[in-house]
Amino acid sequence: xxDTLRIQKIEQKIARIKKExxxxxxxxxxxxSRQYNVCGKIGCRCKDPIKPRRHGPYYKVSYVxxxxxxxxxxxxxxxxxxxxxxxxxxxxxxxIDAWGAYPSFWSKKxxxxxxxxxxxxxxxQQ
Length: 126
Ligand SMILES: [Zn+2]
Fold this sequence. Notes:
rod-shaped, single chain, 126 residues, 2 helices, alpha+beta, 3-stranded antiparallel beta sheet
């Protein structure tokens, strides 16, 4: 493969990454967990000595915001939406990593182009 073709292939891959970034939709960092809780009220089903039944499920999304671990509860009717946003955020990170894997050798000022880079060997993980 000649250099011009190689550069064209890289540019096409970056163009696909950019398009996918634009189409991502809403994002939320972190991960979702499901919990069952014990309230502690005397006589409550969650304290039943024979067959305790905890309250829940409660859904919680945990993430790091400005360097601090944060979490918040997610109402059951929002779980599907939040899951989609979490998946979008993971995809965003992968797309950024994929884009960052390409060298910016097409700069005219770059005196040391990395034309040894082989875009066909790089595949974007789904
Ligand atoms: Zn209870």
